[in-house]
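Please, structure for the following, as tokens.
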Amino acid sequence: MNRNILYQTLVRAARTEKVEQGVPPGFEARVLAAIHRVEPNESLRRWASVFWKAAFSTTGFAAAVCLVAMILFVEEERPRAVRELGSVAEAINGAGDEIASVLIEDLEEGESW
């Protein structure tokens, strides 16, 4: 058989055949079934479960310790080490006045900033 005739016949047959642009029937079902068949590593699943349980129990224990500490050790009064500054506005105005007075003194002495 002549190769050229065979080639032309096959090319002509391929060009006359319609190409479907859709997904083959059952393809989606096969892919989803393959995904569902894949199981994660059992030891990894077991360790992840243990770590999540440990994280939640540690968080609960820390919250309980903080609650007990707040109930037992928080005093009603402010600690004596805290400096009384008055209101925030007074502190800010006082600082502004002090800075302005220092700048004015420097200008009067002839220093430039």
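The mean pLDDT is 76. Residues 29-74 form one domain.
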